[in-house]
Write a structure and sequence with these properties.
2 domains, globular, Pathogenesis-related Protein p14a, 312 residues, 26% helix
């Protein structure tokens, strides 16, 4: 049984999480940790994806999140799987979840050029930010995408004496895109809510009505709120959070999960009036938009997500 196992940080590789476990567990030699973690103690730990783990290791890794979430958020699957046809992508995903099959033959993983040995890469400024926020640095997925030389300014493969480039301290905290089924939904805020373009993008209309002081149109898991006088979409929300992704990650459904992605909310409390009366909300202002997450109880899961133009 593994009594202690560190929780994963945002965008952290599973390989990095295992490395932190090893350094903090006090093993006299790596082979003892390998026996605890891997089905074969002689296996080379996979930097990008997973290995075959012992039952105790699986229990520790999935103590707070499912293996499916581990694959989506803490391996390189989301970076390379997006280029596959759906059926092949699902086969690769299930191969990873079950820790069986040759997923390397299914995923379009670029090979290193000129026989160059793979190294884990990091951004020195991000590492400094990690140490300030979490007390330690870790390996980020975003820095490891092969054949990308400038994902973030300042990444390096060797420890520098000092950082000579700068990266926004929000580089790994502030979402850049809010997507629904892979589509950037912020593009629709302010747009004229024409029926055919919406239906072409999001499927058949499911329901219409009035809420939030205006009209709404609901499609599969997503709702557009319309200001009829201005003839524009003022906000977008939904209940099927699995279909929404923020910066390539599926939205977390609890308060702690949202804080891991967005940080502490600018506003938080209970709605006293309006369509959401009685519900509890967390609100964020970022990049010109307002984000709000609603749940029916203080400790409950998020049930509703909404994004709108930032109110003055």
């Amino acid at each position: 049984m593994i009594a202690y196992f560190p929780a994963a940080y945002p965008d952290e590789l599973l390989y990095s999480q295992l490395a932190r476990y090893y350094t903090k567990s006090g093993y006299m030699a790596y082979t003892f940790a390998a026996e605890e973690l891997f089905a074969s103690k002689t296996v080379r730990p996979d930097m990008d994806f997973i290995n075959s783990y012992t039952p105790a290791a699986i229990q520790a890794i999935t103590r707070n999140i499912s293996m499916e979430v581990v694959i989506e958020k803490h391996t390189m699957f989301s970076c390379y799987g997006r280029f596959l046809l759906r059926e092949r992508r699902q086969k690769a995903f299930q191969s990873l979840v079950s820790m069986m099959g040759n997923y390397y033959n299914l995923l379009p993983i670029p090979q290193s050029k000129n026989g160059k040995v793979r190294c884990l890469r990091y951004c020195p400024t991000c590492a400094a930010n990690d140490r300030e926020q979490y007390g330690e640095a870790y390996w980020h997925r975003i820095h490891q995408i092969i054949a990308t030389e400038s994902l973030l300014n300042g990444y390096t493969e060797t420890a520098p004496k000092q950082a000579t480039t700068t990266v926004s301290s929000q580089a790994n905290k502030t979402p850049e895109e809010v997507l629904y089924k892979g589509k950037t939904i912020t593009n629709w805020i302010g747009a004229r809510p024409r029926q055919k373009p919406l239906q072409d993008e999001f499927g058949a209309l499911v329901a219409t009505g009035q809420a939030r002081g205006g009209d709404y149109r609901s499609y599969d898991g997503i709702t557009f709120f319309v200001n009829v006088q201005r003839d524009e979409i003022v906000s977008i929300g939904g209940t099927n959070l699995e279909l929404f992704t923020v910066n390539e990650a599926t939205l977390d459904k609890d308060r702690a999960g949202l804080i891991r992605i967005f940080g502490n909310p600018q506003k938080e409390g209970q709605v006293m009036v309006g369509d959401d009366e009685g519900s509890y909300y967390m609100a964020y202002d970022y990049m010109g938009y307002s984000l709000a997450f609603y749940r029916s109880s203080p400790d409950g899961k998020v049930e509703w997500f909404e994004i709108s133009n930032k109110k003055d």
